[in-house]
Write the structure tokens for this entry.
Amino acid sequence: MKKQWYHTDNFKQIICLGTPIVLNQLLVLAAGFVATIFIARLGAVALAATGLVYSGYISLYLFCIGCLYAVAIPAGRAYGNNQIDKFKSIMASGLILAILLALFAFCLLSVLPFVYHWTHQDLAIILSAERYLRVISFVLFPYLLLVVMRQFLLIVMRTMIINILAVINFFVIVAFSYVFIFGVDGHFAFGIAGAPLGSLIAALIC
């Protein structure tokens, strides 16, 4: 009898584990898209500055989360073998790595204004981009820590928590981005800096 090389239960388990990751990334991208639509109402300069900053930011973000996703491999192996102390140690190391990567990204993002000047970008766009950068440079710290925490929740099979937090995070980002970009009754209007400020608050909340 020919041995079956796959099992439907494996597919179900992979889909159950993969869905929260896909949902989370889609909602992050969707929140960024909505915030960009808000910024577009501020004018062409603000929109150009956002695109200039975001292209560098997203490259660093993807690099950092790619490094952090590797934490799940040894952590998952330790948890599966019931080596709880080793599992805790690996997850703690992952949190430290997240902070170190955020510091690395923070330093690189601080160099971007010099790159903009060196490549002779429009001065108005540079000034607007610098306002955006001052806030978004701090967003990676809580975001990368959350990446590690999601790895923990995936390993211990608490995927529903990830889904709930992803949905809450999306609505918090959209709401606070709108408030901090346009303000309320003339207060809290930070313009282009309001979008990353909304993301920062959302990351701190959930």
